[in-house]
Amino acid sequence: MTATATATATAFPPIQRPVLALAIVMTTGVLGYTLGLSARQAGLFVIGIALGVALYHASFGFTGSYRRVIVHGDISGVTAQLVMLAAAILLFAPILAQGSAFGHGVGGAIAPVNISLALGAFLFGIGMQLGGGCASGTLFSAGGGNLRMGLVLVFFCIGAFWGSLDLAWWSRLPGIGEVSLAGVFGWEIALPMQLGALVLIYLGLRIAGARNKRPIWWAHGFSWMYVLRGPWPLLLSAGLLALLNWAILLLAGHPWSITWGFSLWAAKVALALGWDPATSSFWNDGYAQAALVRPVLADDVSVTNIGIILGALIAASLAAKVSPKPIGSLRSLAAVVVGGLLMGYGARLAYGCNIGSLFSGLASASLHGWVWITCAIPGNVVGVYLRPLFGQSND
Q1: Per the domain annotation, does 1 fall within a domain?
Q2: Which residues, 6 or more positions from 129, have their beta carbon under 8 angstroms from its beta carbon?
Q3: Is beta strand 100-101 parallel, antiparallel or unpaired with respect to 104-105?
């Protein structure tokens, strides 16, 4: 450890022990409940906790990364994301090619390419910038004690449920259906094709003048105190997120997803308020019907989401950063409502978010993942220009 690292590591504020104790109690309770369901559910919950810590300690978000590229030409966050995607593509390929793991089937995140996907991704991009976070960013920020992002999460759920009610209509619009690049070209071509595309994106950004303007590895030397209390470098979290997504694939048989859980949570509330699922073709599907009646923690996506929230709370208390602040002006509140609704509705139309469609989609060699990011980036540009109207800074 360098002298600089030692000096910095000893300058941490005290751990927020009451918050940490509360987080540990809640985590222990949920872990005990999930163990009663199955070792599989408990495993997914533990993976969720690790995701929450990795996301929080590196502040690993997509929204801020895209905004920094658009406004400042800073590709530090995007560089880490490209590394994360490349690692996930390499990890997923042999498992998906085999089609099974540990005796159970394994499938990638493959979704249709159609107008619904394109429009949903565009709306999600706008919502990201207005809401101030993507799907994973909303979860770890809310878990870390950010009241504003907690409210974004509420409207995110409402928007996702609303989108589920309209999805049947949007899905009837023109499209080309599901396209697996591995299915079309074979893994021996799809794998280098996707990796090459990531390299070209990076080179294109560099040629356009963008640079890594923030450190993406340990800036002040390594210290175990940083491992415990953060901050972590972007590349460390990028590698961990790829590994943890791969772990979900191995354990659950499908990649990491987030926004299905938001749709389900809002649907359960609507059901308690008297809504009839029979009025929706989406919720008449066998899987959705079963999810409505079983416990929330029995749902793969929900249990991982809750793990992320609690993992972020643990990380935030270790970093002594749990400090809820008021939302602020009415314009900021409007951005919360509009951003959350747009992200939720857009994610449902686009068959997922920056995690389910982009991260897991590209790792699965699905064309829809590439279409998602192609349409979400213009949405982010629009969102960046709209932010000042809602009293938000782009700095």
Answers
A1: no
A2: 63, 66, 67, 339, 380, 382, 383, 384, 386, 387
A3: antiparallel
First to last CA, the chain: 33
In a domain, 48, yes or no: yes
Percent of the chain with pLDDT over 90: 93
Domain tally, the chain = 1
Can you give 260-300 as a three-state secondary structure string?
HHHHHHHHHHHHHCCCCHHHCHHHHCHHHHHHHHCCHHHCH
- Residue 289 inside a domain? The answer is yes
Residue type for position 181: L
Rounded to an integer, what distance in angstroms lies between the CA atom of residue 342 and that of residue 134? Answer: 11
Q: pLDDT, tens digit, for every residue of 1-27?
A: 444 444 444 578 999 999 999 999 999
pTM, two decimal places: 0.96
* 68, 205 contact by CB (below 8 A): no
- For residue 239, which of 49, 76, 85 has the smallest C-alpha distance? 85
DSSP state of 173: S
List, as one string, the DSSP characters of 341-372: HHHHHHHHHTTS-IIIIIIHHHHTTBHHHHHH
Q: Could you list the residue range(s) of the whole structural domain that residue 275 is in? A: 14-390
